[in-house]
Design goal:
The chain is α+β, with helices and mostly antiparallel strands and about 450 residues long. It folds into three domains: about 1-160, Beta Polymerase, domain 2 (2-Layer Sandwich), CATH 3.30.460; about 255-375; about 380-445, no CATH class. The chain is about 50% helix and about 10% strand. It is built from 23 helices and eleven strands. The chain has helices at about 10-15, 15-35, 40-50, 65-75, 120-125, 155-160, 170, 175-185, 195-205, 215-225, 230-240, 245, 250-255, 260-270, 285-290, 295-305, 310-320, 335-345, 350-355, 360-370, 380-385, 395-410, 415-435; strands at about 35-40, 55-60, 80, 85-90, 95-100, 105, 115-120, 135-140, 145-150, 160, 190. The strands form three sheets. It has a seven-stranded mixed beta sheet. Strand 3 (about 80) and strand 4 (about 85-90) form a beta hairpin. Helix 8 packs parallel to helix 10 (about 215-225), helix 14 (about 260-270) crosses helix 19 (about 350-355) and helix 18 (about 335-345) crosses helix 22. The radius of gyration is 29 Å and the shape is elongated. Bound molecules: adenosine-5'-triphosphate (ATP). Adenosine-5'-triphosphate binds near residues 41, 54, 173, 175 and 176. Adenosine-5'-triphosphate binds near residues 57, 130 and 179.
């Protein structure tokens, strides 16, 4: 990279075509409203790094809303206005979003609280940013175009250094620590030593306590962008002292098995959830379950409350991850498919990653479950059995379950379902007349690993 800050016109000359067209539209609308306008945030950071910009975040001095409305009309796209914050989001035809915000000054009435804001200058707007490398803006109008860099962000950006703008930054807003870890993981950047010290200091003083569960969880999800860098992220959380801010027992649980996150992330990358038509596992939750597996149930309950988890995540966490609760016994290579399928049914994608992380045969079972077993469904239903003259009753359900097990185990094919089910149903009926002979009737056992509880 070049040592001196790049020339703004040169930066804009290299834009991808669609972004160039969008900016031309923005400038035409701004010309008509007379707005003072700059491009700031991640998109400029990308451009300065020589990458195509991931987004266009515009900052408007005065009031962003008239320009947002003008532009929405010009481009004939929907706009969402948030009058309280002076911000607007346009939904562009290619599905991307264009954010416009009124330049503002922020004041933190209490640590961790949302700041009080008032309209202000571009320079004040940059002063409220998280890191120097994120506090650059490219003024688009009025002419001349200028790269605004009041916090000397360019040298830090060039060197990949994350440096806060002031000493209270992390106390004001501890989500900035997680944002920093996200940039470390994604861009390979590093906290500058004093910034790292301030992060540790804020965390050990309990800064995270000021964040609501909802905010904390959202930021965690954002930080854990993918499985590739998941173990780096949680290693940094541990190293910075962030885990204790989530729960006092979490650092010990993490240290009990420091490779747990790496193992589960590797397992998740091998599994094809999309191909199986299932939701992709969420990296943040997968890591949390892997670590929390060795925590006592009371601590897991506390973690659930702290992060204000939704029902599905709570169930997975309380079920106990890979340790105390599920699975008590991992499926071995010679297990029968219907037993494994029963144990896996009802588990979330994250839990399946945990099972797969436990070893080769468990992983092979999860793959087989996703690609084959979870897709097997009976062609017949109870009505087909009753239509043959069989009386209805619990034996019908029992026969269908036994038939599904036989299909899963490959003992019968799809064409054999009706004959097999009728055979089972008749045996069950017969056994009911002769108590004590139920085992022979083809009943399947209880769930083997306590799954789906
Ligand atoms: P990404 O590429 O992940 O979207 P980004 O830097 O664009 O990264 P955003 O959350 O979209 O992330 O934020 C846009 C800009 O707003 C940031 O570059 C930063 O300048 C500023 N910003 C966002 N969140 C904070 C925060 N919590 N404290 C201070 N500044 C922030």
């Amino acid at each position: 990279m070049n040592r001196s800050a790049p020339d703004p016109d040169r930066l804009l000359a290299d834009l991808p075509e669609a972004t160039g067209r969008l900016l031309a539209g923005v400038l035409a609308a701004a010309g008509r409203t007379g707005a003072e306008l700059a491009w700031a945030g991640g998109g400029i950071r990308d451009l300065l790094r020589g990458e195509p910009p991931s987004n266009v975040d515009l900052v408007v001095v005065g009031d962003a809303l008239p320009l947002a409305r003008r532009l929405a009309t010009d481009l004939d796209v929907p706009v969402k206005i948030h009058p309280r914050f002076g911000t607007a989001t346009l939904e562009l035809t290619d599905g991307s979003l264009l954010d416009l915000a009124t330049a503002r000054r922020e004041r933190y009435a209490a640590p961790g609280a949302l700041p009080e804001i008032e309209p202000s200058s571009l320079v004040d707007d940059l002063a409220r940013r998280d890191f120097t490398a994120n506090a650059l803006a490219l003024r688009l109008t009025p002419a001349p175009r200028l790269l605004l860099d009041p916090h000397r962000g360019w040298p830090d950006l060039r060197s990949g250094i994350l440096r806060v703008l002031h000493r209270a930054s992390f106390v004001d807003d501890p989500t900035r620590i997680l944002r920093g870890v996200r940039f470390e993981a994604r861009l390979g950047w590093r906290f500058e030593p004093e910034t790292e010290r301030l992060a540790r200091e804020a965390l050990s003083a309990g800064a995270l306590a000021a964040l609501s569960g909802d905010r904390l969880r959202r930021e965690l999800r954002r930080t854990c962008e993918n499985f590739e860098r998941l173990s780096f992220v949680w290693d940094r959380f541990h190293g910075l002292g962030l885990l204790a801010g989530l729960d006092p027992e979490l650092p010990t649980a993490y240290a009990t098995d420091e490779a747990a996150v790496a193992r589960v992330a590797a397992a998740a990358r091998r599994l094809d959830f999309a191909g199986a038509g299932r939701p992709a596992p969420e990296p943040w939750l997968t890591a949390l379950l892997a670590i929390a597996a060795s925590m006592p149930v009371a601590a897991r309950g506390r973690l659930d409350l702290r992060l204000d988890l939704d029902r599905t995540a709570r169930r997975a966490l309380l079920r106990g991850g890979a340790g105390a609760g599920f699975p008590r016994r991992l499926p071995a290579a010679g297990e029968s498919a219907h037993v494994v399928t029963q144990a896996f049914t009802g588990l979330g994608s994250e839990e399946l990653c945990l099972v797969a992380a436990a070893g080769d045969s468990a992983s092979a079972w999860v793959t087989r479950y996703l690609t084959e077993l979870s897709r097997i469904a009976l062609r017949i239903g109870g009505e087909d059995l009753v239509a043959t003259g069989l009386p209805s009753g619990p034996h019908v359900g029992e026969a269908l379950r036994a038939t599904l097990d036989a299909r899963l185990d490959g003992r019968i094919g799809a064409d054999d379902e009706l004959a097999f089910a009728l055979g089972v149903a008749r045996r069950v009926l017969g056994a009911e007349r002769e108590p004590g002979d139920r085992a022979a009737a083809g009943r399947t056992g209880a769930r083997p690993w306590g799954a789906g509880a």
